[in-house]
Amino acid sequence: MTNPISRFSSRAIHVLRTEGLDVLVKKIRRRLRVQVFHPLPPTLIQLPVDYIPQPLPVCGQHPRASLIIPCEGKLSQLHHCLAAISASGDKAPFEVIVVLNGSEEILTQELKSYGIHCVQSREENLRPFQSLNLGAAEARGDFLVFLTSNIQVQSGWLDALLDTFEGQQQAGLVGSRVIFPNGRQKEAGGIVFQDGSVWSYGQLDDPYQPEYSYLREPDFFTETSLAIERTLFKRLGGFDINYSSSCYGNADLAFRIRVSGYRVYYQPWSRVIDCGSNSTGQDLGVCTHKISGLDIDKHIFIDRWREKLGTHGECGKYIEQQKERYVHQRAFVVDVYVPTPDRESGSLRLVNLFTLLRELGFKVTFAATNLEAPEPYVANLQRQGVEVIYQPYTKSISRHLKSRGIDYDLVILSRADAAIKVIGPARRLCPKARLVFDTVDLHFLRERRLAELTGDPRTKSLADRRRREELGLISKADATLVVSAIEKELLAQEAPGADVRILSNIHRLPGLRYGYAERHDIFFIGSFSHPPNKDAVLWFSREILPLILAQEPEVIFFVIGADPPAEVRELASQSLRVLGHVPDVRPYFDGCRLSVAPLRYGAGVKGKINQSLAHGLPVVGTSQAIEGMFLADGHSVLLANEPSEFAAAVLRLYRDPKLWERLSSNGLAVMKEHFGFDSARRALVELLENHLDDSATLGQICAVIVAFHPDIDHLTVLVRECLKQCDGVILVNNSSHVAIKLQAPDRLRIIEVGANIGLAAAQNMGVNLASGLHFEYVIFFDQDSLPEPGSVARLRATFAHLEASSAAPAAVGPCVVDSRDGVMTPFVRFHLWGVQHFLPYPFQPWIQCDFLIASGILTSIPRFKAIGNWEEALFIDNVDMEWSFRARSQGFRCFGVPTARLYHPLGDRLIRIRLFHRNLTIYLHASSRQYYMMRNRIALYRRGYIPLAWKTQDIPRALLKFFMFSLILGPRWKNLQSMLRGAADGWHGQLSNLQDLDTQTAVTKTNGQSRPNRFNQ
């Protein structure tokens, strides 16, 4: 890479010569002036004792929100709460409902002077959630917002809450950031652990650290500043009044909302100050509210949500992963500056890219190379769910990647200046990430064209240096993004072999609002930090505009764009208005008759044209301006390159309504096909789906491991052993993020699913990736297995020998040894008269058997594809047996290999007994597993390709297990429920995930009421 001092000095000289001293000074100042984030101190209201209530804003008959506040006679706190609400300045119309619990009539009269609705309970000492439900029953607003009387809301708190419902799909519950009066944080969302403990995340920390300051999905909220749609609240039956603590009552509501298919969001820019709690005490951490019924609440909550809590992590461990357990993948994006989408098109494209990444399941973390934090741009990103890292909390990007680089699955470096600084650390510190260089536009192409236009040899020299820099970055990246087919074709010549993808500008399509007759005047839009825009405005104003005004003297030419240089400002006149930065440009897109793009050099796709066409506004542009934009002269744009031609085209379009309407309609069609969100989403999905594809053969054997809340230490040992015996390892994680500590993880690929999709689906996902990586064989392992050294090689050699001898192997498997007591599991064959058990002996090369357990199975990928995937509908149990029997029906056979051993515990626990002179092993599983085992075996009884011999042997075994687990081995009642439900679903062919079935049950309506989910109560 070139020397940075030489590189920047040459560019400074170039800017000085081509753009002038004032522009150079602005750019240097922009580089040096880092806008550090400044925390917002809490605003507290102090009212006098003789405070006279002031009426709240009138909301009319249709409030958007109903604020519900229970009150138990603490009038001073309530006065402060209502005064803060009145002073917050929120735009949304709201009503306030105060629920009085045992208060005197004089209090009711005083509160009515605010103009609020008071609800007087008919009974004394209501339980906390009874008061909230009572207030909700009186509400008229579209949304219910539950508050406590000891808080003071901050400016914009309500609008931030309600806007989240508009901006986020399936938002069901939104909670505020809670801060103590001393500025320390009380809560940034809550975490629920596997044992039912709850945690106030970020308590007593600086609330404006990046990790607390972006929209995300917590488990719940321990405090009451919550918003929910009124109809959803009613459908769920409100708060459960059996709870007495906000911890578990709110958590129960959040869990029910998720079961109903909605999401729970923490909105940090809805800030409330808790004035009634200890603001200087110790770190509470795990919720320890002094409530007498807390233990009772905890037991109620655990009993109701035991199955769901089983997917959560241990108390106090992996907090950063558990705080956002619903994140599937993580992306880190770096640009030179924080995006300013209202000022330049590259920023708009990046912000829209963030939206697409989040839709595809990524959590997005962004950093500017100088770690700046300009407002309101940082806050806008955080409100949308983007984590922004900035000074003074982050000292450098390299330091951030040292601690967080292992988490990222995707790294996008936007623009060459950012990529040059970060590509080295990203490559070293983000071992599993796909590294993408986003050019935005090819800088060297733009500089080369400027050199051709001016004939300046020094500009050409700068272009050559830029070319070497950008081609160097392309060679180091896994993939490169360009915005047009023209640039992709150029790089096919300049960087043959590079993985170059097109991801063009991304625009929403507002469409046409006003027709031809309602419009007049013309305009240009573009930031003047981009040098071609200055040249375009000067050329148009000096050589083209006079020709237009000669025939249409009433026309006004508007110039919109941030930081116009002195030469452009000096052009201002009655007919030429230099407006500078305009925060809302919609009136110009809706009111002007056309826009112009008189660019004489540049590169990439022009956002100014995209924006115009997205609003249905026709464009006159040069060949350079419309390059790579799928536009045709006379069909979707007018093209002109010479001043007289350009003026004639503007006048023609300005005067011809039919031409105007044709260009407007066709331009919108082009935008929809090539530059809308759907087009960008397809390109991004293609990039991400193929990001692990490698044309080079990586090896012969790939191990596929499926993890679900694993023991990290054992999983690490398993991965290390697999890396010794296999050519690659794919870990499919069905639970929260896992961090495997390895010295050289180059051959390890981790797929973070983010949810429990089941053993079969996860294994299929691993096989698909192994196939894409051109492995020949695949071997499967459960997370608690461990192969004996040399076993994988013995399995592969046996498979190859059997295949060469035309034995048609479906798969081979090891001798399974129970890791708890060392007992070997025999290989079996089924006959109508009984079951044959074959205990493995070391001198036997192989043993034919009817099925193999999934952990330890080795097969070739072509053979696996010929037989077919694991059946995902079975989810977990009998998956291996069904596949083995399906293979048998197709003429293939399974073989056990005694010389290969796998240490693996079968079942959660086991009991070995002797019955009728036979050794009997009983494997004990959780109640949910009893459901799957019963359901799947009954479903298999009904299939023709399943051997009759197995059915005749298994039916008595199933009956024995049914009576044993429902009458003898506990938990008997839950086992009985699970097995009965499994039998019914298996008989009817209902093979859905148990969690999905519970969700469906929970939301099923009966006579207009929600039917309770009996399995989650």
Give a verbal description of the structure.
It is built from 33 helices and 39 strands. α13 runs parallel beside α14. The chain is of the alpha/beta class and 1017 residues long. The C terminus is likely disordered.
A few lines on this structure:
This protein is α/β, with parallel strands linked by helices and 1017 residues long. The strands form 9 sheets. Strands 1, 2, 3, 4, 5, 6, 7, 10 and 11 form a 9-stranded mixed beta sheet that branches. Strands 14-13-12-15-16-17-18 form a 7-stranded parallel beta sheet, sandwiched between helices. The longest helix is centred in the middle third of the chain and has 20 residues, at 457-476.
Q: What class, by secondary structure content? A: alpha/beta
Query: Would you report the number of β strands?
Result: 39
What is the number of helical segments per DSSP (H or I, 4+ residues)? 33
Write down the Rg.
33 Å
User: What shape does the CA trace take?
Assistant: globular
Largest sheet: 9 strands, mixed
Helix content: 25-40%
DSSP strand content: 15-25%
Uncertain parts: 278-292, 691-698, 996-1017
- The end-to-end distance, rounded to whole angstroms, is 63 Å
Mean pLDDT: 83
Provide tags for this entry:
1017 residues; alpha/beta; 9-stranded mixed β-sheet; 7-stranded parallel β-sheet; 39% helix; disordered C terminus
